[in-house]
């Protein structure tokens, strides 16, 4: 069998794998060959991004997937989905009715991978450190509702929040809340390079070539205590230049599994292959792709220009031409299946309509064609990104209303430029920090947002975001969340494009591939094992 579609319930929070791994399993290490996993995520240390694996800095899915294997958090998302569960903590919970005081008790005798004890003071140090460093990735904004952190003894930690935040347990599952030792991490600056230490499932050793990581070796942490059942002793994560190189490696048997990002052509070829020893696992996903607009740039400052673009972009054509069945059109920043999702852009603009775009620009006295450049990254979101932007460029330019140029750059150059406001329009992807609608809205719309957007809407920031956070019942938060989506559709500081599925290709002597990645694109390497009788 070459394709294993993983059928999951539609409702977020009910995600549960339904396929069992084939065969028994033994250790991926223990004197045998380590399990080798391929990725096209690139890890580079540069002047602009000196600390790609520091929890106080990292804010992309690739680096977070490295940290989730090594740096433990108080809470974690269970393999089957649902609410956050205690991880480094023995128990956690709100201790007041206002959702403003949150207390955790650490597991007894919790230790780092070097055997040193993990204490409540370490937790306080880690949270305070991330908040005080204020890295330019803006990852610290996930902790924006924290006022002070208090400790009692060696095991009890109390978070006093500035305002009600029912999503705080979810935020404690993210790597920025990871627990690190003051012995290894300086208080007031980032830990540069690729060293990582923590109390998670594995210890880490990075192999490098120049400023780039070529391989990350994860070795089972003998002191680990948490909710994960580690099914191997050692896993290697190999970073490839592109999807073709990664595909060649799995064909030759140099790697056992490949994750993000395979090309649409690779996926189809593997799915159609007969008598192959490589299985493709398809899962629903919460990855989204969108265009961000700098609303202060002259060419895009007038809202009518951005609304005209929203009238023209044809998502159905874009997804079918570029991604086939691997992506679905998305009409909101909040994906389908997430509580609070609304088709706000479809409600506002309907089907693509060039005449409405032309009338809108004429009514606003906009001289056409409107000229601007759309920037995209060539090596971060997969090989189809170039065709995606060529398609968008053609859709806009064929109307005669726009004269759009496109420019692609590597991620280590592209991302700093984007944060510095050097682009008028830019393509970005997003994987959720945690499975809740807030993580698809506040990182782009609140103060200290991760894309450094100059767009400000007081109604969103001062009323709707705080309102949504007050609701412990996330269904009750939907009214505020839906209004945020409607405002975004009218103002168009962001233009959602599509929601993607997830694919894993795994050799059939490897077990646990069905559980190796969850709907939030979190890599769970501890789920992998070797089948009985494999080398």
UniProtKB/TrEMBL annotation:
Which segments does the entry list as coiled coil? none
What keywords appear on the UniProt entry?
A: Signal, Transport
- Gene3D superfamilies found in the cross-reference section: Dipeptide-binding Protein, Domain 1, Dipeptide-binding Protein, Domain 3, Periplasmic binding protein-like II
Q: Name one Pfam family in it.
A: SBP_bac_5
Is Signal found in the keyword set? yes
Its subcellular locations are:
Cell envelope
Domain Solute-binding protein family: residue ranges: 84-449
**Domain of life the protein comes from:** Bacteria
Similarity annotation: Belongs to the bacterial solute-binding protein 5 family.
Its name, as the record gives it, is ABC transporter substrate-binding protein
Q: Which organism is it from?
A: Streptomyces ortus
């Amino acid at each position: 069998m070459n394709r294993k579609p993983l059928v999951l319930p539609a409702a977020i929070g009910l995600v549960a794998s339904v396929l069992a791994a084939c065969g028994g399993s033994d250790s991926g290490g223990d004197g045998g060959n380590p399990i080798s996993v391929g990725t096209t995520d690139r890890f580079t240390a540069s002047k602009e991004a000196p600390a790609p694996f520091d929890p106080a800095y990292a804010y992309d899915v690739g680096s977070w997937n490295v940290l989730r294997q090594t740096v433990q958090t108080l809470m974690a998302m269970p393999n089957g989905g649902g609410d956050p569960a205690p991880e480094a903590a023995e128990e956690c919970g709100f201790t007041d009715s206002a959702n403003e005081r949150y207390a955790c008790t650490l597991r007894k005798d919790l230790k780092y991978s070097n055997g040193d004890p993990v204490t409540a003071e370490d937790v306080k140090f880690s949270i305070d450190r991330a908040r005080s460093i204020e890295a330019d990735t803006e990852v610290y904004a996930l902790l924006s509702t924290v006022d002070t952190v208090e400790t009692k003894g060696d095991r009890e930690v109390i978070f006093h929040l500035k305002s009600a935040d029912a999503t705080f347990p979810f935020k404690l599952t993210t790597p920025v809340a990871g627990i690190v030792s003051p012995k290894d991490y300086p208080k007031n600056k980032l830990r540069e390079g690729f060293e990582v230490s923590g109390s998670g499932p594995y210890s880490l050793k990075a192999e490098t070539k120049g400023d780039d990581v070529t391989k990350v070796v994860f070795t089972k942490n003998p002191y680990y205590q948490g909710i994960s059942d580690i099914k191997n002793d050692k896993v290697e994560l190999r970073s490839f230049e592109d999807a073709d190189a990664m595909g060649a490696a799995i064909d030759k048997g140099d790697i056992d599994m490949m994750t993000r990002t395979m090309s649409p052509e690779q996926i189809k070829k593997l799915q159609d292959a007969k008598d192959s020893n490589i299985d493709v696992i398809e899962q629903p996903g919460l990855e989204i792709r969108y265009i961000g607009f700098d609303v202060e740039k002259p060419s895009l400052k007038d809202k009518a220009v951005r609304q005209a673009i929203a009238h023209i972009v044809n998502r159905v054509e874009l997804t079918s031409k570029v991604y086939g069945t691997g992506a679905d059109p998305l009409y909101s920043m909040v994906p389908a299946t997430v509580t609070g999702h609304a088709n706000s852009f479809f409600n506002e603009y309907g089907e693509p309509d060039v005449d409405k775009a032309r009338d809108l620009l004429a009514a606003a006295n906009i001289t056409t064609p409107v000229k601007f450049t759309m920037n995209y990254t060539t090596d971060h979101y997969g090989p189809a990104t170039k065709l995606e932007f060529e398609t968008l460029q053609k859709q806009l330019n064929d109307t005669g209303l726009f004269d759009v140029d496109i420019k692609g750059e590597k991620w280590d150059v592209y991302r700093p430029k984007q944060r510095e406001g050097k682009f008028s329009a830019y393509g970005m992807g997003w994987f959720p920090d945690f499975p809740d609608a807030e993580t698809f809205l506040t990182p782009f719309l609140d103060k200290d947002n991760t894309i450094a957007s100059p767009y400000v809407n007081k109604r969103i920031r001062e009323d709707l975001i705080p309102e949504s956070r007050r609701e412990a019942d996330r269904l009750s938060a939907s009214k505020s969340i839906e209004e945020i989506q409607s405002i975004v559709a009218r103002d168009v500081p962001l233009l959602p494009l599509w929601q993607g599925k997830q694919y894993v290709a795994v050799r059939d002597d490897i077990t646990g591939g069905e559980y190796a990645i969850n709907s939030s694109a979190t890599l769970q390497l501890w789920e992998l094992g070797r089948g009985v009788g494999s080398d």
